[in-house]
């Protein structure tokens, strides 16, 4: 008998879907969380990171040994650093210098090189620098914001998994929006199965800072984003997202980041207005990525 042993790449996807036990209170709704922190590098971004590299290789655009450059606020960078290590690429990541120490350390642990831009330059400045470096021949940009292989990973993976795990009963899908790859690909798949499924996207309220998600200026809106794939956009306050993030850890044993807490906060709002709904929210990463931020220091 020949045994087949998987590689680390084979462990991306097929993440658990679990139900909330306490935060929803007495309700006729089913509140479900897709635990993307269970991916090998700890976030939903593992899916598009490997997809973008594999599909670019298949098209002959890159080959092992090449230098890849990408702008990231954190999770995509960690996932790309892992994928580059798996596949044999040099990885240069450009990120704002206010990203958490855990994120920076995880990227370098996988062998990536970091270039930091100022908090004021932000992700827009990081994206501009990545494009300049490519124009100067210093690396090839995968460009998660404009690369169709990003949402395709969710169309082929996340969406079918949720449909299968809910037995086709899902009525609402809730996701924070950063590059928008998760919500775009998952929405496309779910709407093909049932056009009545409601897709809810989350963005920070004006003045709120929620790691990993943005209110993009029009000129920087990700090219993969198609507004018609989102039925409703929820503006989320930072304080509400942080509160629910802490409650998830303390009352449900689900340890995640603030954008995930925001998605669950939006789910809890919907829970007050709906009956007999089956809602799925994306928990996109793990909370250990945010310990140095002080997020979990507040008293219960």
The CA-CA distance between the termini, in Å, is 54 Å
| Proportion of strand residues | 15-25%
- Outline the low-pLDDT stretches: none
Shape by Cα distribution? globular
Helix content: 25-40%
Strand order of the largest sheet: 1-2-10-7-8-9
Give me the secondary-structure category. alpha/beta
* Tally of individual helices: 8
Q: What can be said about the biggest beta sheet?
A: 6 strands, mixed
How would you describe this protein?
- This protein has 300 residues and is α/β, with parallel strands linked by helices.
- The chain is built from eight helices and ten strands.
- It has helices at 46-58, 75-87, 101-109, 122-135, 149-165, 181-193, 238-252, 258-273, and strands at residues 17-19, 30-35, 67-71, 90-96, 113-117, 140-141, 172-176, 198-204, 232-236, 278-283.
- It has a six-stranded mixed β-sheet.
- Helix 6 links the parallel strand 7 (172-176) and strand 8 (198-204).
- The longest helix has 17 residues, at 149-165.
- The radius of gyration is 19 Å and the shape is globular.
């Amino acid at each position: 008998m020949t045994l087949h042993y998987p590689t680390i790449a084979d462990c991306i996807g097929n993440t658990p879907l679990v139900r909330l036990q306490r935060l929803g209170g007495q309700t006729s709704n089913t509140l479900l969380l897709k635990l993307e922190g269970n991916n090998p590098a700890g976030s939903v971004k593992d899916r598009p990171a490997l997809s973008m590299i594999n599909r670019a290789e298949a098209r002959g655009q890159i080959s092992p040994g090449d230098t890849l450059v990408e702008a990231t606020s954190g999770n995509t960078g960690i996932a790309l650093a892992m994928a580059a290590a798996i596949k044999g690429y040099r990885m240069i990541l450009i990120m704002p210098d206010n990203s958490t120490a855990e994120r920076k350390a995880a990227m370098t642990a996988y062998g990536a090189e970091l270039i930091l831009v100022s908090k004021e330059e932000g992700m827009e400045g990081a994206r501009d620098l990545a494009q300049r470096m490519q124009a100067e021949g210093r690396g090839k940009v995968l460009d998660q914001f404009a690369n169709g292989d990003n949402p395709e990973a969710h169309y082929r993976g996340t969406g079918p998994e949720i449909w299968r795990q809910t037995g086709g009963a899902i009525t609402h899908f809730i996701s924070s929006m950063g590059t928008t790859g998760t919500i775009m690909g998952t929405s496309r798949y779910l709407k093909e199965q049932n056009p009545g499924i409601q897709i809810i996207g989350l963005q920070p309220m004006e003045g709120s800072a929620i790691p990993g998600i943005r209110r993009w200026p029009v000129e920087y809106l990700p090219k993969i984003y198609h507004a018609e794939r989102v039925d409703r956009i929820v503006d989320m306050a930072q304080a509400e997202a942080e509160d629910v993030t802490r409650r998830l850890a303390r009352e449900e044993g689900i340890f995640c980041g603030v954008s995930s807490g925001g998605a669950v906060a939006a789910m809890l709002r919907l829970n007050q207005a709906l009956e007999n709904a089956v809602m799925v929210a994306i928990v996109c990463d793990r909370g250990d990525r945010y310990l140095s931020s002080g997020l979990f220091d507040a008293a219960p």
